[in-house]
Amino acid sequence: MKSTEFEKYMDIAPEVKEALEKGLPVVALESTIITHGMPFPQNVETALMVEDEIRKYGAVPATMAIIKGRLKVGLSREELDYVGSAKDVVKCSRRDIPFVVSGKKDGGTTVAATMIMADMAGIKVFATGGIGGVHRGAETSMDISADLEEFARTNVAVVCAGAKSILDIGLTLEYLETKGVPVIGYGTEELPAFYTRESGFNVDYRLDSPEEIAESLKIKWGMGLDGGAIIANPIPEEYAMDKAVIDTAISQALADAKAEGIKGKKVTPFILEKVMELTGGESLESNIQLVLNNAKVASWIAAGLSKI
Ligand code: PSU
Ligand code: MN
């Protein structure tokens, strides 16, 4: 039996609680993208737009964060402003959660931590921008995101725009295969690469409707095949970046990270910030648009799951 001890530490927003009790569609959202992925105030503005998008498509948004040691499932406007502008927010993955709770600290939840909290609360679908993965050079650095382990064990489907080429996309796919995590392309055979629609790698299964995706998730979990799934949703054509521009920025950002000796959990936020600087904000606009697009698809999948 699953432990319910977490309930002591968790606050579920009234709107989210009601939707869960009624079996209505709910979509989880992460907060590392807010605390470590985008600058203030665009981070809070984006978070609000994403929540609105989810409501527009008939689901209830549940943005996750840790505030003063409480696991928050669904944030009020004040709470969102608070985490979006607070200093000393911990980037929280699986390992960090108990310490941020005991220390009554603030935490931005990564994909891994958001999946954990979503699972605790009973939310099956989660929308984000990009996931962590196997970093380039991982054969010597061993830098592999804890997100990948979470996909292997936690029953939450994550809608993302594929894997960024700050990662080694090929190795990330190999890792997911080993762990039994399906990568589903929404309307695409090719795995998108976040800022661009192409990566040169194929997905495992192409599914063209949210209903088919919901159905396959239902079958997976119904059979007791635990673990998450990745739903890769390409950035809309009009917001996709030029491959050469983004590749150059990423190479430069990776070189800077290496030169400055950036390690551990600082790597991803450092590179994201550099890429934003180097593309003069163009990557930020793409990032915002692709998250909105993922929120829409996640809402449809959540609706599909609530109907079966
Ligand atoms: N990729 C992005 N934007 C992000 C992240 C990744 O394009 O904000 C964040 C997510 O929260 C993800 C985390 O879970 O970075 C992965 O960090 P790491 O590589 O340290 O596991
Ligand atoms: Mn890492």
UniProtKB/TrEMBL annotation:
InterPro entries: Indigdn_synthA-like, PsuG. Substrate binds at residues 91, 111, 145-147. Mn(2+) binds at residue 143. The active site is at 30 (proton donor), 164 (nucleophile). It is an enzyme of class 4 (lyase). Its EC number is 4.2.1.70. Keywords: Glycosidase, Hydrolase, Lyase, Manganese, Metal-binding. The keyword Nucleotidyltransferase does not apply. Binds 1 Mn(2+) ion per subunit. It holds the Pfam family Indigoidine_A. Belongs to the pseudouridine-5'-phosphate glycosidase family. This is Pseudouridine-5'-phosphate glycosidase. It comes from Youngiibacter multivorans. The gene is psuG.
